[in-house]
Amino acid sequence: MHISTDSYYKKRLTFFKWRHESTLVNKVVLALFMAIITGFMAQIIIPLPWTPVPVTGQTFAVLMAGIVLGKYWGGISQFLYIGIGILGVPWFTGMHSGYSVLLGATGGYLIGFILAALFLGHLTDKYIRSRSFTPMLGLMLFANFALIYIPGLIGLGAWMYFVKGSMPTIWTLLVMGIIPFIIGDLFKIGGAAALTKSITPKETFSNEADMESSGKWRIF
């Protein structure tokens, strides 16, 4: 069945208007759905022998949570993911659960998930321009490598200190906690930015701060 371009644009605008104006119950359901997606993507694992931090598919889900759910609710979805996992649902990486995961080598990254989703959700809802490829690529690079990795490295360093009794060097943290993941993250970020361009409306749905000037931009 053929779907016209105009119909597609209308449907994506309708969805974002609906989720922006929806009831609390619907927003909670959407947040739980994105938490489930994050848990599913956490099971896509490539272990690395020199670090307790594996390669996973979670980053993609976290970035898209902010885009799909918008202001506050992207972050809430990741808060639910962590909270429900702590309570015993085995959807952390490797089908683990419990508070020990938050206190472990990857706990800081989990906190970063909330920050990244909050950041992207806020800007997606506030600025129409952020929904095109180039601006979103820059925002996702910042969210990934600053808002996720900085708390992640802090948490990894604290875990290593309590396990080994001494603080690791900056180079050790980089080798264990960020350098092995850069190439994979760039692919995930590029894919998430491209998907964002396709699924987000380039029209106003929530009185965006830049809605008066958005028509002057060339959307990439």
Count the DSSP helices: 9
What average pLDDT do the residues reach?
A: 93
Helix and strand run? HHEEHHHHHHH
Uncertain regions: pLDDT < 50 for 5+ in a row? none
What is the strand arrangement across the widest sheet? 1-2
Number of domains: 1
- Intertermini distance: 27 Å
Q: What's the CATH class label?
A: Mainly Alpha
Overall spatial form: globular
| Strand fraction | under 5%
Q: What is the rounded Rg?
A: 18 Å
Explain the overall architecture.
The chain has a two-stranded antiparallel sheet. 38% of the residues are buried. The protein has helices at residues 5-21, 24-41, 58-69, 73-87, 99-102, 107-126, 133-164, 170-177, 182-199, and strands at 45-46, 55-56. The longest helix is centred in the C-terminal third of the chain and has 32 residues, at 133-164. It has 220 residues and is mainly α. A hairpin with an 8-residue loop joins strand 1 and strand 2. The protein has a single domain (12-202), classed as Arp2/3 complex 21 kDa subunit ARPC3 (Orthogonal Bundle). The protein contains nine helices and two strands, in the order ααββααααααα. Helix 2 packs across helix 4 (73-87) and helix 3 runs parallel beside helix 6.
Descriptive terms for the model:
single chain; 220 residues; mainly alpha; Arp2/3 complex 21 kDa subunit ARPC3; two-stranded antiparallel sheet; 2 strands; 2% strand; globular
Task: Describe how the helices and strands are arranged.
Elements: H1 5-21, H2 24-41, E1 45-46, E2 55-56, H3 58-69, H4 73-87, H5 99-102, H6 107-126, H7 133-164, H8 170-177, H9 182-199
Antiparallel strand pairs: 1-2
Helix pairs in contact: 2-3, 2-4, 3-4, 3-6, 3-9, 4-6, 6-7, 7-9
